């Protein structure tokens, strides 16, 4: 189970702010059936979602998977304000053993910065 708690200090996608939501895939599977999405938080740069998602995958498979998490701006149906606010790729081989709440920095391509000791 993956719980999306919140985001903080998101960028404003337009002068009205952002309408963020979180979209997740369990890579390498990017089929629509494997996608999970939170609800949209209107005009909010510090949204709280507190939504839980299940992925029907055996535990042994999870250790070889990566969670692709993207925070996107919803915009309207025909809006030009849709787009990516940032993303992170989380290798589950590292994260499964932690079983705790964790903050992640978003980047344009999802790569995590190297942290010096």
Explain what this protein looks like in three dimensions.
The chain is mainly beta and 117 residues long. The protein has one domain: Sandwich (Immunoglobulin-like). Helix content is 7%, strand content 32%. The protein has 2 helices and 6 strands; from the N terminus they run E-E-E-E-H-E-E-H. The strands form 2 sheets. A 4-stranded antiparallel β-sheet has the order 3-2-5-6. The longest helix is centred in the middle third of the chain and has 4 residues, at 59-62. InterPro entries: C2_dom, C2_domain_sf, C2C_KIAA1228, Extended_Synaptotagmin. GO terms for molecular function: calcium ion binding; calcium-dependent phospholipid binding; phosphatidylcholine binding; phosphatidylethanolamine binding; phosphatidylinositol binding. Residues 1-104 form the C2 domain.
């Amino acid at each position: 189970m993956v719980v999306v708690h919140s985001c903080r200090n998101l960028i404003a996608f337009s002068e009205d702010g952002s309408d963020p939501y979180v979209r997740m895939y369990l890579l390498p599977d990017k089929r629509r059936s494997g996608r999970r999405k939170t609800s949209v938080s209107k005009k909010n740069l510090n949204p709280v979602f507190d939504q839980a998602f299940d992925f029907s995958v055996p535990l042994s498979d999870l250790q070889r998977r990566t969670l692709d998490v993207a925070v996107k701006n919803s915009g309207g149906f025909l809006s030009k304000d849709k787009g990516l606010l940032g993303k992170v790729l989380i290798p589950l081989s590292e994260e499964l053993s932690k079983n705790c709440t964790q903050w992640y920095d978003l980047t344009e391509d999802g790569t995590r910065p190297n942290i010096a000791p």
